[in-house]
Amino acid sequence: MIGVELVKLVRRPRTWASILLLCALPTVVAIFIAVTHIAPAPGQGPALLSAVLSNGTLYPAAALALVLPIFLPIAVSLMAGDAIAGEADSGMLRYLLARPVGRTRLLVAKLISVITYVLGAVVLVAATGYVTGAGLFGTKPLLVTPHGLSASGVATSLSGTPMTPADIAMRTLGAIAFIAVSMLGVAAIALFLSTVTDSSLGAALGALAALITSGVLVALNSAAAVSPYLPTRYWLAWADFFREPILWRNIERGFAIQGIYVLIFLAAGWANFATKDVTS
Amino acid sequence: MIVTKGLTKRFGPVLAVDHVDLDVREGDRYGFLGPNGSGKTTVIRMLLGLVFATSGEIEVLGRPIPARVREVLPKVGALVEGPSAYGHLSGRVNLALIDAAGRAGARRTRRRRVDEALEQVGLAGIDGRAVRKYSLGMRQRLGLAAALLRAPKLLVLDEPTNGLDPQGIREIRDLLGRLNEAGTTVFLSSHQLAEVEQLCTRVGVVDRGRLVLQAELADLRPVTGRVIVRSPDADRAAAELNGQVASRDGDELVVTGADPAQLNARLVTAGLRVAEIRPERRSLEDLVLELTGPGADRVDRDVVRGSLPEEGAP
Questions:
Q1: Fewer CB within 10 Å of terminal CB in chain B, N or C?
Q2: Contact: A277, B100; criterion CB under 8 Å
């Protein structure tokens, strides 16, 4: 069944259209920056963008930062929200279950397909970022400081350590893993909603509504009490991989909170789906 | 093959299926009849473990459902509420995916299984066109092919000839007849009563969730004891048979208390021409309409005045 789901994922036009869009945005941004040489000042604009003019190998991480707030969650919500609800909507759910494909098995196969999509999308965006970044920007040495990155020779007052290419690669891999896990939290919420409704759009919008609510509450001082438990609270903590020393505290918390969300929503989705009357 | 005892399903306040005791025997060609919304599809869904019963027991192929669906369903082919397929893929790819789902057969023989199923339903020459572009009849055939993929012992078919033209309907009827002769039990629901009459050996009729009749078709259509005579000399025939004519419609008379052969001899002796003479039988349609109320898709205006929109309301 897992193989069947992966074939369906790969043969689906939507999969490739969404990945194409995800890869296009960072490419467009890179072209603008490369042509104008106007990057956001350090500390402003999307994280890391200020540093990429000096070193293009940072661009994979910057590319992920560009798609992380909106594009990536939308794509992941759409794919995961479609998992069960899409089958119900197309009328195939009843035929799969009557085949029979066990309900737990089907859910696991869908989950694996969604994980594959998330990893594939994140890795492809990073790869596109690397190609465009290395092609369009220089690879001047960088300093990594407790406050982030700076091009050496620009901010000489900051004490920093120079970054080697291997160092950049390791930190980028860490960021990729962190962002992928963050997106799995989104996927779990959308997958759960997908077992609740027969409308894949409804499931996707429900998951996005949850993320937007979480985003608003994180920014709200009076909601500080609940903020550590919200799914988007530590989304931006991946930038801490690009500090010296790496700030593990928020990264660890981010992994932990996503793990909890994944477990809770997968369990709820399974409990709901396994006992549900399939009337679609 | 299929036995249910006191099968009941409640969706919230709605009692969809109410104490249904089905008994489908091996080798049957069972027609499952009833108006729209009478609970046929819900029963079929419960047989396949898609919907869970509120109470009652189900046994399919001698095993309890839904507890043993994993053993039972591989031997069951199903078409439920119309065929479905992934619209952007071709019919062949769709069948291959369905074949690979669940407890798949060997990958080596998949292509052959798909080809055989397509051959059976008359889609052998199908090309790589996406199912999205198929006609209604082609989709229906593809759905049947999916049900036939693993040479099932039991076919559960909901409206199998929906969307087919008369030739297609006959083809499918012949196909089901052949499969049945080869040992497949066929359980089908249909609105086409004439079709059920031609194909089925046994029928069950549901109305508003209850099974109101379950019997051999042969037992259901006894001669009524009356004879139908069609004659160009209907006026004189009516006079000749005075007192025995129950009703008359144009040149057709319904005659009571007579044997067709003797009646024929009597009319001919009297010099009357007889165009047609046959014993009257109740049709399945009459029977089903007698037993069942209007379908749930008919919504009559409530006769209670208070529920009508107020006069002068915009």
A1: C
A2: no
The C-alpha angle A13, A19, A24, rounded to 5 degrees, equals 125
User: A280 near A95, Cβ under 8 Å?
Assistant: no
Q: How far is CA A16 from CA A90, A176, A185, B71, in A?
A: 20, 20, 22, 38
Residue B268 phi, psi dihedral angles, 5° rounding: -65, -40
Find the residue in A nearest to B71 (Cα): A100
CB pairs under 8 A between A and B: 78
Q: What is the Cα–Cα distance from B193 to A181, expressed in whole angstroms?
A: 57
ipTM > 0.85, yes or no: no
Is some CB atom of chain A closer than 8 A to the CB atom of B50? yes
Q: Residue A46 above 70 pLDDT? A: no
Question: Looking at residue B90, what DSSP letter applies?
Answer: B
What is the side-by-side strand order in the sheet with B252-255? B245-249, B252-255, B223-230, B276-281
Give Cα B197 distance to the centre of its chain. 9
d(CA A3, CA B223): 59
Closest CA to B192 of B121, B300, B123, B283: B283
Q: How many CA atoms lie within 13 A of B286 on its CB side?
A: 8
Domain count, chain A: 1
Residue A2: closest CA among chain B residues belongs to which residue? B101
Considering the domain delimited by B224-281, tell me its CATH architecture: 2-Layer Sandwich (3.30)
- pLDDT of the residue at A165: 81
User: Helix, strand, or coil here: B141?
Assistant: helix
List phi, psi (to 5°) of A276.
-85, 145
The verdict on residue A110 lying in a domain is yes
pLDDT tens-digit readout, B166-212: 998 998 899 999 999 999 999 999 888 888 888 999 999 999 999 99
Which domain covers residue A166, as residue numbers?
Answer: 2-274
* Residue A13 with chain B: CB contacts under 8 Å: 88
The answer to whether the beta carbons of residues B294 and B35 sit under 8 Å apart is: yes
pLDDT at B285 (0 to 100):
82
Pairing of strands B76-79, B154-158: parallel
Q: What are phi and psi of B276, to 5 degrees?
A: -160, 140
Chain A interface includes B78 (CB < 8 A): yes
What pLDDT does residue B309 have? 46
Structure tokens at A131: 């190609």
- A123 located within any domain: yes
Which residue, among B92, B98, B2, B14, has the nearest Cα to B56 in the 3D structure? B2
To the question of domain B2-220 being in CATH 3.30.950.10, the answer is no
pLDDT tens, position by position, A187-220: 999 999 999 999 999 999 999 999 999 999 999 9
Residues A207 and A213 sit within 8 Å (Cβ to Cβ)? no
